[in-house]
Amino acid sequence: MQKKAANLAVVTNNTFEAFKADNLTHYDISSALQTTLEFDELVHIFSNKIQNLIPHSGFVYSNEEFDLEIKNGIVTRSSCSYAMKVEEQQLGELKLMRRQKFSEQELTMIETLLCCLIYPLRNATLFQQAMNLAFTDVLTQTRNRSAFNDIVRREIRLAHRNGNHLSVIFIDIDHFKSINDNYGHQCGDLALTSVAKWINESIRSSDIVFRYGGEEFVVLLSETDLDGAELLAERIRQNIENHIFAYGLETIRMTASLGTSTLRGDDTLDKFIDRADQAMYRAKQTGRNRVVTA
Length: 294
Fold this sequence. Notes:
- A hairpin with a 3-residue loop joins strand 1 (about 1-5) and strand 2 (about 10).
- It is elongated and about 70 Å long.
- The protein is of the alpha+beta class.
- It contains 9 helices and 13 strands.
- The chain has helices at about 15-20, 25-35, 40-50, 105-135, 145-160, 175-185, 185-200, 225-240, 270-285, and strands spanning about 1-5, 10, 60-65, 70-75, 80-85, 90-100, 165-175, 210-215, 215-220, 245, 250-255, 255-260, 290-294.
- Helix 2 runs antiparallel to helix 3.
- It folds into 2 domains: about 1-135, Beta-Lactamase; about 145-294, 2-Layer Sandwich (Alpha-Beta Plaits), CATH 3.30.70.270.
């Protein structure tokens, strides 16, 4: 076990091999961790399972590869942190917290117990990497329509269950066909990647961008009401309009038409999406380069 500064230890697969040889009493923890491939569920299960052995008031799990930070419980000054990896693959960092300092015996036990967690985390990492590849638009590096269909259903369930706002913005590039016709499809591809970049520059870290199809993008906004969605849509519209796209010796100005809607209490998925889609088409029909709210 290699110690780092600030009580940060590295738990590796080598540690796990030693653990298997010396200690087989934590089968219950390992079995419970085999039931999911979700990072959030894994760290919650692990925390609950070790609570009687290592009492703690909260935890923070972070994973830079997937831009994750999962928090639970009470933040305290006393903590211990562990970076985990297997076969040189980084699996994130787990911090356990409580008011009183952890003893050396407890720290040793935590390091042993964490060996139950590294392979489930490795499996979750491989699963998430595969899902990211399957759900990513290769050209724009935004999420694709399959990802949207999956994520929007989950977000609708959460919004209905928790009583939270959920909004969506549909974005369609104006006169995109003329870009392809006049300058070629390579120029069209560069235009799409530029617009995706400008959309990402305009949104918050909690918002998700999808390429819905062709020249159409969607932004999903959790915990955002209709006024907030309209403000964000206008920011996106202005950011696209204010950029000049250069291709060879040509400069091309682009605009977009945007439609927004917010989830209502009796909404189905189709109703929620259709309102934003229809609002976007009204923006097209009433002059383009504008935001229409449903």
